[in-house]
DNA sequence: ATTAATTAACGTAAAAAATACATTTATTAT
DNA sequence: ATAATAAATGTATTTTTTACGTTAATTAAT
């Protein structure tokens, strides 16, 4: 640190340049068997009609997470989304208006929990991940980075927790993993593997929406999951 | 994003609060078989004598990485250190002076490449990782986070590249991994595993410093390493 | 010149994990 | 009663990981 002036004095700060800080949200959802992303369609100029991520400036008296939660609640009506920091986007010229650093944050959510009318009323759209339009600024890069992170995260955390409804079937869970990794998996091996973690509780109910036989519903054993994460388990499938 | 004013116009920015942005560097080194961290001992009040990480404010016309490189070169004389972003530390009250977000960045370096006199002249010290003093602000947390990240990183990248001298022996590489993971490994299995990656080139020279028999020196095959990283290999040992 | 000391180098067998692969089962609609 | 549909299940093979003891090369001391 510079030591021309005493750190932690007002004067010391005045020697430096404050910068605008924004946060952009990369929100993954899973619905109807496909991975989706929450995007925002601009309704005013400039760039009217262009798509972007949902974002906001960070205020002096709020943390970055709080800023993201604020804008997300505004647009989707959902509170308590667990946001995780991705990385900063801090290139000097990334924003044509003014020097602005954006902190990317991502989350996985259950689309079914949302108030979809509210989402659409605010101009936000759940877009199938495979058909995403081009996004403004460096938002495409943010999305690419988030997918990479999501794949890595899935290796040490059972992400189904966050993306699936409370009760889900094993074929649904497999769909999710296939969507994230973009590849087919063997259903026998998949089932064997996920059950071996011992964090799934089989319920006495079936979901009959996708087959005549119906598939048993499961839920996560949250306590057991916490123990396993603490022990450093690898949840890779 | 707020749409009271057109984004990317000067006025739009003026509605928001700029914030001070700093970067703090968590620099790991490996020397004499032990993992070390570069820390800075404050020579002026307040907190004279306290230890901190090396850091700097980010200027309007420099990227966060450039800011870190600038301060690192100043203190250690080393240019071109490859810094990687850890995460942001953005709690509203983390800094008692003023709202300031710090972006933690970490690097692994070869201590032998450094100008140690320069390091000490600037009041920096290579501290054995296991004997670290308490650090100011939230720097202790940054260090803890960086070690976690380093361990994770080691799973998909051969970090020896960055921490060891150009020529190194397999026992030295094992020491490094034992230091990072804080556990003993079996030398036969370790050797087998690291050689199986196919990124080590055996040289016709021995290092006789640590044994009478001497150990063969190796170097990394950088091209092959790049290929393997691209293919998503797991370098876990 | 011989011996003692020191760390490097090496291979194999057993256990565990990952993979490949096909049939039967429960249910609904006709 | 039958056809249609997706769910559920097991086993053999291959690959990976783990556990473990002996010999080899060199230097320093005698």
Outline the structure in words.
The structure is a homodimer of 237-residue chains. Chain A is of the alpha+beta class and 237 residues long. Chain A folds into 2 domains: 10-154, Nucleoside Triphosphate Pyrophosphohydrolase (Alpha-Beta Complex), CATH 3.90.79; 157-231, Arc Repressor Mutant, subunit A. Helix content of chain A is 31%, strand content 28%. Chain A has helices at residues 10-14, 64-76, 116-121, 139-153, 160-163, 170-181, 187-196, 222-230; strands spanning 18-31, 34-41, 51-52, 54-57, 84-89, 100-110, 124-128, 168-169, 200-207, 215-220. In chain A, strands 1, 2, 3, 4, 5, 6 and 7 form a 7-stranded mixed β-sheet that branches. In chain A, strands 8-10-9 form a 3-stranded antiparallel β-sheet. The longest helix of chain A has 15 residues, at 139-153. Chain A starts with 9 loop residues before the first helix and ends in a 7-residue tail after the last helix. The model of chain A has no long low-confidence stretch (mean pLDDT 86).
Which short descriptors sum up this protein?
DNA mismatch repair protein MutT (chains A, B); Arc Repressor Mutant, subunit A; Nucleoside Triphosphate Pyrophosphohydrolase; homodimer; NUDIX_hydrolase_dom (chains A, B); three-stranded antiparallel beta sheet; alpha+beta; globular; DNA-binding; 28% strand
CATH class membership of the largest domain in chain A: Alpha Beta
**Number of helical elements of chain A:** 8
Strand content of chain A: 25-35%
**Biggest interface:** A-B, 51 and 51 residues
Question: CATH topology of the largest domain in chain A, which one?
Answer: Nucleoside Triphosphate Pyrophosphohydrolase
Q: Overall mean pLDDT score of chain A?
A: 86
- The CATH superfamily of the largest domain in chain A is identified as Nucleoside Triphosphate Pyrophosphohydrolase
Biggest sheet layout of chain A = 7 strands, mixed
- Looking at how many chains there are and whether they match, the oligomeric state comes to homodimer
**SSE ordering of chain A:** HEEEEHEEHEHHEHHEEH
What count of domains describes the coordinates of chain A? 2
What is the correct CATH architecture of the largest domain in chain A? Alpha-Beta Complex
Radius of gyration of chain A, rounded?
Answer: 21 Å
Number of strands of chain A: 10
